[in-house]
């Protein structure tokens, strides 16, 4: 006799290769804990509703708990012939407690079961990802606090633009990760509804209590349409898209860390623990960790595209195609979690070469805009001021001088509106500290944002 629970209708055994090809146990076994948790809640509901007896439910629950212990102890043989985690556990249950185990699947289908399992699993995993995001944000804030006096060149087009505080630059990433956390929490909140009770697609003929199951499992409520309940994977799409954005943000930070740790920038040193050497060039210290995270952003984006393509044009309700949702989803979870964890530690241990940053900020006429703003305050239209400063910069280039090094006479060749108070405006610190409005790079504005962010974190 076949061990397959659905063998009744069949006269021939499944082809061996087909069996392997269609099985998901190789990857969905990671859902075991949630599958058992969901089954326990379902069994208790069946008893409460008089669909099975209290004694039967107790045998089922005890059997499931003993299977959980076995799996965690590594004493469980997952069988490809039993296709997936749901049938592996159910078959084992029947083996262990006898035919009464066969009552567990009353009023349920693997279609609503798998929809439930993924939700329970993803809900927990998002919780962990949020905790890692939080750790990374804390590391960014700590570095920002330590670098409230570190001036660096701010760039547009990767050309020196205006000086900014390094703390300000780090806070830009803090903001990105704050929005990422918001997107993930929002996604988690939206899918926190129990799909169990949808059955295969149409609901069930048994007098179940879906709300009771939902309550036991910590859901905020139940889904409202059985067809939608078994065919919805929006939550996985939302999660994968929010995760792709997290990875994009990490890849931008990764790129900057790679540039900054090169000899040409020399703005930071990554801890040796996050770098490797070269087998041929003895001087090399390669920023492998940020490079790998930058590279891994590609697979997370790929996972999102795979899932979108998987769901596109699928007719209602369940289709076996949907078994393909798991690997991209699992890989996204693993990759995002690992990347956040490693970045949190790497940022915390990063050494900042403040003098080099300041020296670089002084190059490239980064305070030219401040001269133009000065002229505007003397009543000169901005366009004209721009032209005057453009000529001043050209003169500096010819003379090999920087703007603050010009004498007053030299300045006044370009505009008589320039007085000797110009020197108060063209230093790096003056330029930075003049930008005091909310969101600007002035020390006081950045300090305010750090304090606000610390408050935001402590309220989490
Ligand atoms: N392993 C399946 C999956 O992950 C479970 C649901 C199977 N349902 C079915 N009708 N074959 O999608």
Give a description of the structure.
This protein has 460 residues and is mostly helical. It has three domains: 7-106, Fumarase/aspartase (N-terminal domain) (Fumarase C, Chain B, domain 1, Orthogonal Bundle); 111-145 and 163-205 and 219-359, Fumarase/aspartase (Central domain) (Fumarase C, Chain A, domain 2), CATH 1.20.200; 362-458, Ribonucleotide Reductase Protein R1, domain 1 (Orthogonal Bundle), CATH 1.10.40.30. Helix content is 60%, strand content 5%. Strands 1-2 form a two-stranded antiparallel ribbon. A two-stranded parallel sheet has the order 3-4. A two-stranded antiparallel ribbon has the order 5-6. Strand 3, helix 8 and strand 4 form a beta-alpha-beta unit. The model has no long low-confidence stretch (mean pLDDT 96).
Write the layout of secondary structure elements.
Layout lengths: L15 H7 L2 H4 L3 H17 L5 H19 L12 H13 L12 H37 L4 E6 L2 E7 H26 L1 E2 L15 H7 L4 E2 L3 H6 L2 H27 L7 E2 L18 H24 L14 H24 L1 E2 L1 H9 L5 H10 L4 H18 L8 H5 L15 H6 L9 H16 L2
Helix pairs in contact: 3-4, 3-6, 3-8, 4-5, 6-7, 6-12, 6-18, 7-10, 7-18, 10-11, 10-12, 11-12, 14-15
